[in-house]
Specification:
- There is one protein chain.
- The chain is of the alpha/beta class.
- It has one domain: Alpha-Beta Barrel (TIM Barrel), CATH 3.20.20.
- Helix content is 43%, strand content 16%.
- The chain contains 12 helices and 10 strands.
- α5 links the parallel β4 and β5.
- Bound molecules: the ligand O=C(O)c1ccccc1NCC(=O)[C@H](O)[C@H](O)COP(=O)(O)O.
- Pathway: Amino-acid biosynthesis; L-tryptophan biosynthesis; L-tryptophan from chorismate: step 4/5.
- It catalyses: 1-(2-carboxyphenylamino)-1-deoxy-D-ribulose 5-phosphate + H(+) = (1S,2R)-1-C-(indol-3-yl)glycerol 3-phosphate + CO2 + H2O.
- Keywords: Amino-acid biosynthesis, Aromatic amino acid biosynthesis, Decarboxylase, Lyase, Tryptophan biosynthesis.
Amino acid sequence: MTVLEDIIAGVREDLEARRAGIDDAAIRSRALAAPPARDAFAALGGTADGTGRDTVLRVVSEVKRKSPSKGALADIPAPADLAREYRDGGASVISVLTEERRFGGSLADFDAVRAAVDLPLLRKDFTVEPFQVWEARAHGADLVLLIVAALDDGPLRELLGLARELGMEALVETHTEDEVDRAVSAGARIIGVNVRNLKTLDVDRSNFARLAGRIPPSAVVIAESGVRDADDVAEYAAHGADAILVGEALVRDNAPADALRRFIAAGTAARPPRRA
Ligand SMILES: O=C(O)c1ccccc1NCC(=O)[C@H](O)[C@H](O)COP(=O)(O)O
């Protein structure tokens, strides 16, 4: 079993336990009654054909307590306080991990962050069932994560379609050429290239430069994982990242708002004037 398969097996067990406590009709009516989703595509600098794109590097800042690759990262006793720091530092989107077993997250963390900030929020989980998309909207999410390596084309399209029907968008995450091509064919508008291989946990930052050029300019391109400092951010930006997704470097920093400002400045300075 790969690391990703092992995580998803646990996610499915936890999902069934939650489903035993609330029926599908109830979660759907909560989702339909929730305030409208925020426009995460625009918040990440997206424009319909890519030509009106500005040169600001956006940051998706993650609330991440622990991980399979690094173990414990930060206690984060008050996720809402961290979210306010992220907002003050200029984050465009906040990602909240809700997977419990391997990342120490929860929907309670998500709710706390939702109540604290008005930015678009990504419910960061291993989405494999429509119930999780309904659940995300019911909790006020604006974006869900769809990992191409975890989904066949049928479910990928179904989950992306459902997210949009509910007014949300999806961050469609890739790691290989084939996955980028599948994300593009599925109609993804926000495409992440994760430099961490979720099957082996190896991190190879050069993977971003290799894959980013396959993504059409109409999509927002996010470089995910592996940021240690402003030089890494500049490298991703120079190779075409519209945004970066950062967890560890921010949660380990004593002044995450300052770190964010440094990352945005370094990435914006390094970004080419416009993606062709
Ligand atoms: O972070 C992990 O170890 C991990 C392992 C298996 C599946 C997913 C994993 N992480 C999810 C992520 O994509 C990262 O949390 C995110 O990109 C931020 O990465 P980083 O800045 O390196 O913390």
